[in-house]
Write a structure and sequence with these properties.
alpha+beta, 99 residues, elongated, 3 helices
């Protein structure tokens, strides 16, 4: 059903093989696009993202008031005002109540 394809990496310009097995895997996972980077560039990009998430830029936090208990808290998203925002403790209680 599938045949190996030779693709060109958009980062380094090297050609790489997109094997029949990889194509089958992509189909099983529901991926619709072919890979655009060679395995080396994909690995380098993944490593860079991991490094940035551990030691890179700190996540921007927003001060707000918990909708349940009224405590001042910080959340990693900008509250829009049309939905409730909870402190960590109140959020945990909500999550546990759904289990």
């Amino acid at each position: 059903m599938f045949k190996d394809k030779v693709l060109t990496c958009k980062d380094c310009g090297a050609e790489f093989v997109f094997t029949a097995g990889q194509q089958e895997f992509f189909l099983e996972k529901g991926f619709t696009n072919e890979p655009s980077r060679c395995p080396d560039c994909r690995a380098a990009r993944k490593q860079q993202r991991a490094r940035n998430s551990r030691t890179g830029y700190p996540r921007k936090m927003y001060r707000t008031t918990c909708s349940r208990c009224g405590a001042v808290t910080e959340v990693p998203f900008e509250p829009r005002g049309d939905r409730p925002v909870y402190c960590r403790a109140c959020y945990q209680m909500r999550v546990e109540s759904y289990r």
